[in-house]
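Re: the 224-residue chain
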Amino acid sequence: MTKSNSRRFVRAAWSLLFFQVIASAGAVAVTGWAAFHVQSLVTAQRSSGATPAPTEPIPAPATPAPAEGAPSPTPENTAPAPSNEPAPAPAPTATAIPTQPAIQNCERVQQFFRVPAQAEWCDTGVEVREGQTIYFRVGEGRWSNAPPPAPSYGPEGGPAIQGTWIESAPLGALIGRIGGAAFLIGSKSSVTSPASGHLLLAMNDVRGTYGDNRGQLDVFMAVR
């Protein structure tokens, strides 16, 4: 290699090295500038308070005030909310059950049983068997199925009416009952017992209307 060529080679090498140094410095400068720019953006964002502000709740619409003179909502004038549930069944209505007539004990007057007209049934306390013969004798007394001026009767009674214990028997007649079997006594002297049980005595009257009756009969009886 000649001396002139050596010089050219050295100059070229220095030129290449210079350009490499310049290029490296430029790359470093660009990288530094980019980092500085990013840091500046972050700092600016922090200083500007970029954190999103909390969202305020949306206020509910105000309920309109009732017009002047309009009634205030109350349980009476507020319609109930519709419901898909079936309406409860109405409670059953209670039905009055007929009760058995009150039975009182017959008062003993010497050998007689006093039968008051106001007693729907009077219990003699005498036990009778079915088929036995019961003998009767009526002593003093008269009775009526209503206050005066209603007529009074003896054991035979008056005209028959509907609704009495024995509708085929006269109103106000003396009747008897053993168990569930009622029978006419009237002015008879004897009766064959239709059933077994205590002998009850009463006036033949409309059921449940004995409260306004008047009087009594004294009845003697014997069982054979």
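DSSP finds one helix and eleven strands in the chain.
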